[in-house]
Amino acid sequence: MGKVHVFDHPLIQHKLTFIRDTETGTKEFRELVDEVAALMAFEITRDLTLQDVTINTPVGESTSKAIAGKKLGLVPILRAGLGMVDGILQLMPAAKVGHVGLYRDPATLEPVEYYVKLPSDVQDREFIVIDPMLATGGSAAEAITSIKKRGANNIKLMCLIGAPEGVEVVQEAHPDVDIYLASLDEKLDEKGYIVPGLGDAGDRLFGTK
Ligand code: PRP
Ligand code: URA
């Protein structure tokens, strides 16, 4: 069973409060989502493998640490996942970025896939699937299935806010995938929105309704 990690760092929790607040406008919402994504990326990469490298400092030779092992790939789920990409790339600018396009049918709440593009060396990468919201879990589970079908075998899921229902769906469908959240909220409402959540992440990021 994949583990659920909820980041309780004070900076993440503080910024998340303003992200949730209806008084927060589009510009500030975007900036805060980027900042929280970067802070989460800092935590999520804690287990990256290091290797020794020998370099020369101005004073002498040094055996220092550098990141080894699998290369990273980010996979934002379109469209709201895009709002977290730049923040993460600030910390890992060399990561490749794939995209999975899904929207949630408002009537059935089922995910509908409309676009997939991944880096060519899928098997050799560790992927972080990104979406601000893990609600019913349908979109995240489908996105992970989609990238697994194309050869991905090392996947983490990173969302700002999760609902218990969504966590359960992803854990059942993908027991090999750990889930990283800034908050595990209370529940879903009758329209599939996370309570208390932050509303519609895509609309708040892009200023649409
Ligand atoms: C939102 C969100 C997730 C999905 C979560 O996207 O960004 O992708 O809903 O819901 P689920 O866990 O119940 O599947 P939405 O479908 O609104 O599309 P958008 O990103 O294009 O706005
Ligand atoms: N998608 C969102 O953007 N918000 C929710 O609360 C649930 C799904």
UniProtKB/TrEMBL annotation:
GO cellular component annotations of the record: cytoplasm
Cofactors demanded by this protein: Mg(2+)
An example Gene Ontology molecular-function term: GTP binding
InterPro entries named in the record: PRTase-like, PRTase_dom, Upp_B, UPRT, UPRTase/APRTase
Entry-linked Pfam families: UPRTase (PF14681)
Gene3D superfamilies tied to this protein: 3.40.50.2020
Modulation of this protein's activity: Allosterically activated by GTP.
Pathway: Pyrimidine metabolism; UMP biosynthesis via salvage pathway; UMP from uracil: step 1/1
Annotated binding of uracil, by residue: I194, G199, D200, A201
Domain of life: Bacteria
Keywords on record: Allosteric enzyme, Glycosyltransferase, GTP-binding, Magnesium, Nucleotide-binding, Transferase
Residues bound to 5-phospho-alpha-D-ribose 1-diphosphate: R79, R104, D131, P132, M133, L134, A135, T136, G137, G138, S139, D200
Coiled-coil ranges from the UniProt annotation: none
Domain Phosphoribosyltransferase: 6-208
UniProt-listed HAMAP family: Upp_B
Its job: Catalyzes the conversion of uracil and 5-phospho-alpha-D-ribose 1-diphosphate (PRPP) to UMP and diphosphate.
Protein name, entry field: Uracil phosphoribosyltransferase
Lineage, opening ranks: Bacteria, Bacillati, Bacillota, Bacilli, Bacillales
